[in-house]
């Protein structure tokens, strides 16, 4: 039979701390009351967004055009094993993803192009774009999250309910 963990409680009579905690609790309840749904963290969907970008690269090559996100020729590539049913489906998918990418800032497009499509490391991409590796380490996830938001708006990525 296992024993329960007993936590000691410390009682204090600090009125200011209690008031601060009560104010914090009230502000949290007001914040959650304003929104019907809890905020969705897009960080969970970053791998799905990367997968969509790789499928976009593959589909755009099948359609016979270089991806618009790439400003220079593709030296590296990754092919998905997922078959595209028809040529028209591939064209529509490529155009929809390009529309989402066009709504991003130029730096976000460059970061996503180098890291996801051309498979550079974040350190190599930082050198190519003239920024520190630390800056790249937080700009890359932000760029993925912004693209995820655009894909959600376009209906290319659907969150489970």
Would you mind describing this structure in some detail?
The longest helix is centred in the last third of the chain and has 22 residues. This protein has six helices and no strands. It has a single domain, classed as Winged helix-like DNA-binding domain superfamily/Winged helix DNA-binding domain (Arc Repressor Mutant, subunit A). The N terminus is likely disordered. Helix content is 60%, strand content 0%. With 161 residues, it is mainly α. α2 packs across α3, α4 packs across α6 and α5 packs across α6.
Topology:
Elements (H helix, E strand, L loop, with lengths): L14 H20 L11 H18 L23 H16 L3 H12 L4 H8 L3 H22 L7
Helix pairs in contact: 2-3, 3-6, 4-6, 5-6
CATH architecture: Orthogonal Bundle
Helix tally equals 6
Q: What series of H and E elements makes up the topology?
A: HHHHHH
What is the terminal-to-terminal distance?
A: 40 Å
- Report the helical percentage: 55-70%
Indicate the proportion of strand residues. under 5%
- The tally of structural domains comes to 1
CATH superfamily: Winged helix-like DNA-binding domain superfamily/Winged helix DNA-binding domain
Return Rg in Å.
Answer: 23 Å
Unreliable sequence segments: 1-17, 23-38, 72-82
Biggest β-sheet description: none
Q: What name does the CATH topology carry?
A: Arc Repressor Mutant, subunit A
Principal-axes shape call = globular
Could you tell me the mean pLDDT?
74
User: Structural class of the helix and strand makeup?
Assistant: mainly alpha
**CATH domain class name:** Mainly Alpha
């Amino acid at each position: 039979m296992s024993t329960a963990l007993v936590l000691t409680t410390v009682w204090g009579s600090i009125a200011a701390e209690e008031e601060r905690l009560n104010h914090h609790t009230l502000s949290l309840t007001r914040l959650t009351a304003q929104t019907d749904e809890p905020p969705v963290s897009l960080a969970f969907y970053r791998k799905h967004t990367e997968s969509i970008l790789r499928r976009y690269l593959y589909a755009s090559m099948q359609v016979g055009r270089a991806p618009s996100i790439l400003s220079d020729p593709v030296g590296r590539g990754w092919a998905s094993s997922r078959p595209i049913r028809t040529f028209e489906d591939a064209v529509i998918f490529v155009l929809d993803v390009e529309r989402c990418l066009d709504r991003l800032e130029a730096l976000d497009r460059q970061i996503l192009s180098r890291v996801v499509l051309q498979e550079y490391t974040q350190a190599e991409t930082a050198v190519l774009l003239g920024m520190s590796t630390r800056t790249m380490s937080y700009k890359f996830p932000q760029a993925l999250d912004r693209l995820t938001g655009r894909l959600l708006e376009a209906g290319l990525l659907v969150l489970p309910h």
